[in-house]
Amino acid sequence: MPTTRVLIVDDEVLVRSGLGLIVGSAPDLDVVGSCSGGQAEQLVGELAPHVVLLDIRMPDLDGLTVLRRLRALPDPPAVAMLTTFDTDEYIGTALRAGAAGFLLKDTAPEQLVHAVRILASGGSVLSPTVTRTVIGGYVEGGGPDAEAAALTRQLTGRELDVLVLLGEGLSNAEIADRLFLGTGTVKDHISAILGKLGATNRVQAAVLAHRAGLVRDTDQSGA
To answer: Quick one: how many helices (H) and strands (E) in the chain?
Structure first.
């Protein structure tokens, strides 16, 4: 089984240790290092992680600055932001900077491991029980956004189907299964969707789907 290399970046040693124990417990995930923000760029260069879990708020070097630096590297890792409910004001900036997802720091262990695997496979963390809460706060503010809705009208019917499921947090394999398509076809549709919407990653496309009113919010109390 291929091993995914993970770097954890957080200013709190206890947080790094806890996340490291959870992620490292999976046989296919290897925590190759942990550090605070100021060391992140150097360690990414030295350790070549596939996935970086990055705290969005750090005193020495904030997560958004680290994210921009990592995304500017020739072969950047997938970066998911570690966040809490009081950091919603940073979500839009992180999306535009290329974050591949968002994880709440109190994410259940099994969900954290699953999220890292999704990131390693080239997907984005859009779990309804984790990320939609954050996305919901970002897009909150009434009915569908006219500009977002206009952008989605460029899409074909099948691309709209894929976008809706992407916005619901489904992986490529799950979308393929739901729509009776091959995973390669789904990837092609997502590439086309990103190009037409001017989005740099799946998270941005998912937020736009929410803004356009394509994704119905459901009661998550039992999620």
So the answer is: 11, 5
Q: pLDDT of 31-81, one tens digit each?
A: 999 999 999 999 999 999 999 999 988 888 889 999 999 999 999 999 998
Q: How many domains are there within the chain?
A: 2
Pairing of strands 78-83, 101-104: parallel
| Sheet strands side by side (includes 78-83) | 29-35, 4-9, 51-55, 78-83, 101-104
pLDDT in tens, 134-159: 555 555 555 667 888 999 999 999 99
Q: In sequence order, what are the residues at sequence separation of 6 or more whose Cβ sits closer than 8 angstroms to the Cβ of residue 187? A: 172
In the numeric block, the tokens 């109390």 are attached to 221
Provide the residue range defining the domain that includes 20. 4-125
Which of 110, 54, 111 minimizes the C-alpha distance to 77? 54
Check whether residue 120 and residue 152 sit in a common domain: no
Q: Tell me which amino acid residue 162 is.
A: V
